[in-house]
Structures are given as structure tokens and as C-alpha cells.
Amino acid sequence: MVSAIKNTLALVISIIVVHLFYVGYVWPESSAAIEAARTAGQSAPRDLAVILKDWEQEICIIMMLWGTFLILDKCFAIMKDRYLFNVDLLEGAAEGADGEDDLASMLEALENLPARIRTTPLVRTLSASLRRFLITENVQNTSETIDANVESLAVKQEAENSMVRYLIWAIPAIGFIGTVRGIGQALSQADQALAGDIAGMTESLGVAFNSTFVALLISIVLMFLLHQLQRLQDSMVTDTQEYCESFLLNRISTLGRN
Prior knowledge:
By secondary structure, the chain is mostly helical. The protein has one domain (55-258). It is built from ten helices and no strands. The protein has helices at 2-39, 48-52, 55-79, 99-111, 115-118, 121-136, 139-160, 162-188, 190-194, 199-252. Helix 6 runs antiparallel to helix 7 and helix 7 runs antiparallel to helix 10. The longest helix has 54 residues, at 199-252. The radius of gyration is 28 Å and the shape is elongated.
């Protein structure tokens, strides 16, 4: 619930910031540049404001900011918990006859950790695996529990990236809408172009090409950021499995359980 509110707030802020940017800079500058070009009998210049002036580009920039926030938020969430992989969370679980009692106390200690740490994927996987071993007293079952939790973590991360994937697909689609709109406007001004006035047609074609250019450029940036996020997520999944095998399976295998 908190994450949904935060993401919604980020979308609202993106809309407000981008719209204020358009109202305060893009639209006044583009109108002045286009009017000056018309007065001089020239085509519209390739200024930044002119390239960004249409509503398709505005929507694409809003989606870019929101998508960037979604990606960076997930990246920071992963990075801030990386230190846990350098800590032996099961320290104190001894080997020998009383090892099971030590593991039970360690499970209790894991469950009493602060909520922010207790809900991390690593601690959840450790807790589930420890609980499984204490119930079954079987190392193989514990290993299967680790594998199942790691696989579930990978599936969950993939599902959480679905909104970013949608944005990366939707941004070029919106750019193509601008392309169709611009070409349609250009065709409707064919008579004027045949009469010698090509200013309107070139301006409409500019709408078509500018929207596609901006949308494709933004999608390339977001795709790069998404791949960096997936690299971090894959690393976390691999490190979680390796941590559980090193710190948990190696420890409980010394208890002599089968």
C-alpha cells in the first residue's frame, strides 16, 4: 500500500513538473520561434522547444520521469540491503548435540529483527529454510525450500517490472500516434503545397518526425536503465542462494540429519 501511494505521488509530481516546464518554457519559446520563421518565410527551426512542443512528447517525458523513478527506487532498495550478504545472520548457531536448539533460537532471533530487515528477501528465505529444517530435520528438504524461495523471488521481481516494461512499450506507441497525426495533417494540406505554400505541410511533417524521434530516444534510455535494474536483481537472487548454501546448509549438514 505504501509503495502504491509513493508511486502514484511520483506520477502526479512528474505530471506537474513537466506541465509547468511546458507552460513556462516550451510552448512560449516554440510559438515565438515558429512565428519568427513564418514571418521570414522559412521552415520552423530545429530548436529543442520546437521538437518538444506537441502533447505526444509531453506525455512521453512524463512517462520517462515516472519510469526512471520506478527503476531507481527498486535499485536503491536492492543496494541499501546489500550489506546483509556480508553479515553472518546465523552466527551463534553451534555444531553438535545442541545444534538444533541453537538453530531454533536463531530462527527466533531472525523473526525478532526489525521489520525492515525481517522483510528482506534474504531474511525471509533464511527464516523459511530454517523453519523447514526444524520441522523435517532433513537437509534435502531444506535445500529444496531454498530453491523454491529463490525461484519465487525471481518471479516476483519479474512481475514487479511489468509496469516499467509497459512504459517502454507505450512510449514508442505514443510517438507513432504523433507520427500518424502529423502525416494526416500534412496530407490535408496537400492542396496548399501544390499551390506553392509548403510551410504548413513541413510543420505537420515536423510533428510526425519529432514525436517519433523523442519517443524512441526516451525508450532507449529507459531500456538501458531497466537492464541495469535486472542485472542488480539477478545478482541479488544469485547471492541469496549462495548465502543460504554457505551459511545455512553447510551449518545444518554438520548436525548429521538425513
